[in-house]
Amino acid sequence: MRGSLNDSTGNQEPTASLLPPCAPKTIILGFSKGGVVVNQLVAELSYWASKSAKGSVDVSRQNSALLTPDLLVPATASDILSSISEFHYLDVGLSCPGAYTTDHAVIKGIASYVSQTTDSLCFVLHGTPRQWSDPNRPWILAEKNTMLRLLQDEANKCEGRLTLSEKRYFGGRPRSLLMHFEILEAMDIS
Q: Which domain of life is it from (predicted)?
């Protein structure tokens, strides 16, 4: 039997001792154009938090989870959103603006979410000269800097529970498409 949860009596129902003490956390990572998906999840989390502030949902409740034979997974959209602990933007960029979230209302909503919970939330922006130093797409660097500034302004109000960092890779090397993909091996999410 693959991955069965048998107790000493042969019962296949999970026991409390087999369940983790808290629901698992989710790390969101968007590479290149996948940053748009991360932006949408950030906006959804912000919107969800604003609904909570209006009393429509409760972001402070414990996550419920659905036990499957292989793992614990969030069972609802709210559970998925509340399970997110980190957002990683990995060398994101587009041929038009929109690679990074620059909407102040969205970032304020994220700070509101953090202030309503006991959890921490981390944003990490990873980049290479391919994206952050492209003279043909200067908006990428401008958007990244705007997002960092907005996050920092809000993080200062969140008692250390909203954190952010910026990680540069391959400094000193000329911009290349190869480095854009090499970041997948070099990325540090610790």
A: Eukaryota
**Cβ atoms within 10 Å, residue 99:** 27
Q: Is residue 146 part of a domain?
A: yes
Give the range of the structural domain holding residue 158, as residue numbers without chain letter.
25-186
Q: What is the pLDDT along the chain (190 residues), one digit of tens a residue?
A: 444 444 455 555 555 555 556 667 899 999 999 999 999 999 999 998 888 666 655 555 444 455 454 556 777 888 888 899 999 999 999 999 999 999 999 999 999 999 888 889 999 999 999 999 999 999 999 999 999 999 999 999 999 999 999 999 999 999 999 999 999 999 999 8
Query: Rounded to two decimals, what is the model's pTM?
Result: 0.82
Residue 13 resides in a domain: no
**CA-based nearest residue to 187, from 140, 143, 124, 133:** 124
Amino acid at 53: A
Q: Per the domain annotation, does 70 fall within a domain?
A: yes
